Amino acid sequence: MNNSSSMRIAIVGGGPAGLTLARILQNYNVTCTVFELDKTPDRRDQGGSIDLHRNGGQQALREAGLLEEFRRVARPEGEALKLIKYDGTVVLDENVAGSRRPEEHADRPEVDRTKLRQLLLDSLQPNTVIWDKKLVSVAASTSIPGRYDLHFQDSVEEGFDLVVGADGAWSRVRNFLTEQKPSYSGVTGIELWALEVDKRHQWLGEFVGAGSCFMFDEGRAIQCQRDGENRIRVYVGVRQPEDWINTCGIDWASPEEAKKALLDRYFNDCAPDLKRAVLDANDQLIPRQMWMLPIGMRWETHPGVTLVGDAAHLMTPFAGVGVNLAMLDAMDLAKAVIGCAGDASRLPDAIRQYEEVMWERAEQNARKTEKGLIGHFSADGIDEMARRLQGR
Ligand SMILES: Cc1cc2nc3c(=O)[nH]c(=O)nc-3n(C[C@H](O)[C@H](O)[C@H](O)COP(=O)(O)OP(=O)(O)OC[C@H]3O[C@@H](n4cnc5c(N)ncnc54)[C@H](O)[C@@H]3O)c2cc1C
């Protein structure tokens, strides 16, 4: 279908949402430019493995014509889950022969974020992404009424009909639409890395299995996850106040001492294997607060500016839906823009229709995520998850 467009479209942010949107638009000959803060594609660690759901990220990739390419880099074995209580009792282990979930429920293969980003980047026309462009603010155009200018740290790009904020948790585009900001979720995570698992962390590799190993308990959690680069990330979560990282007295600059203090204070009664998993992951330590936008957040629709993904509905990762929603948003917005057939006067209606669907879906998933957050940090959370998986 030829839908050659005279609209000027800017997508701010080259994460899963922004790149999926660009790809689907280009499939329909709609021209767009992605402005990305990273200096180069491999400048920054993109984070751990993510699972793309059949009715989520995979659906968007099908629309983008990239499902086959995705299957080549996906890791279905990464779905294997092991659930363990604080005292070491294993309540579920899908690594054990015969305990994998039935094929029809094995619909969420893992993929490394770097591989997903590369797959999307490779699918775009040359020079679609302009790197090293940090957006500071969006403003109504001073020269062309009804259009928008992008103010970057080092330049101004003028005259866009549509600006899409795909710029994640701390979106600058969002500031144009609403004053709402993320708030602290009540949980802080300490991210630990184990590199070269096969060579240097064999015990941890066997303990975790092919995918993920989770322990949830009242106010605390340990989550270990493999990626396809022979690495395991261990996330130690604690329910603590917002300023805890700085006021708890743990010296994060001395990782080994910090981990011992963390274990002594919050995980002392846990099984030795769980503590060993934390101590064994000794290649990197990064403390992170977890943030979220208000559940059901909406804003007054604006004719030429909108948001996709975390910029629109940041949630904690405790339902594992964020990237899937981001890519569905991208798919829906792309369809809405393509439907305008290059006529910018149709954009306001298209944006309104997209936002209604996106807001509703985001609210439902934010509620699910809130339940997940409570479950991950409650005493019966692990049994509850095991029951749910076994029920399937
Ligand atoms: C620990 C953890 C585990 C997770 N696990 C899962 C999971 O298993 N499954 C799942 O579905 N989701 C998961 N998520 C959530 C998922 O990572 C996000 O929902 C997803 O990355 C959102 O995609 P996005 O494209 O909207 O934003 P992002 O991935 O944040 O991308 C935003 C992009 O915008 C760029 N940018 C930011 N600011 C600017 C600026 N000012 N100017 C220009 N560019 C800018 C950034 O560099 C980045 O490239 C997890 C999140 C965390 C923190």
Low-confidence stretches: none
Q: Structural class, please?
A: alpha/beta
Listed once per kind, the bound small molecules are: flavin-adenine dinucleotide
- For the record, what is the CATH homologous superfamily label of the largest domain? FAD/NAD(P)-binding domain
The biggest sheet, with number of strands, parallel, antiparallel or mixed sense and barrel status, is: 7 strands, mixed
How many DSSP helices? 14
Radius of gyration over C-alpha positions, nearest whole angstrom = 22 Å
- The pLDDT mean sits at 94
What fraction, in percent, of the residue positions are helical? 25-40%
**How many β-strands, per DSSP?**
17
Strand sequence of the main sheet, in spatial order? 5-4-13-14-15-12-16
GO biological process, one term: response to antibiotic
Pfam families: FAD_binding_3
Domain FAD-binding: 8-365
GO molecular function, one term: monooxygenase activity
Draw up the topology in text.
Layout (H helix, E strand, L loop, with lengths): L8 E4 L3 H12 L5 E3 L13 E3 L5 H7 L3 H7 L7 E4 L5 E4 L16 E3 H10 L6 E2 L4 E6 L7 E5 L3 E5 L1 E4 L8 H4 L5 E12 L2 H4 L1 H7 L3 E6 L2 E7 L5 E8 L4 H4 L7 H12 L5 H9 L3 E9 L12 E3 L2 H4 L8 H17 L8 H30 L4 H11 L1
Parallel strand pairs: 1-2, 1-11, 2-7, 4-13, 11-17
Antiparallel strand pairs: 3-6, 4-5, 8-9, 9-10, 12-15, 12-16, 13-14, 14-15
Bound molecules: flavin-adenine dinucleotide.
The site of flavin-adenine dinucleotide has 31 residues, from helix 1, strand 3, helix 11 and helix 12.
Features:
seven-stranded mixed beta sheet, binds flavin-adenine dinucleotide, 392 residues, FAD binding, 35% helix, 14 helices, 17 strands, 2 domains, five-stranded parallel beta sheet, D-Amino Acid Oxidase, Chain A, domain 2, FAD/NAD(P)-binding domain
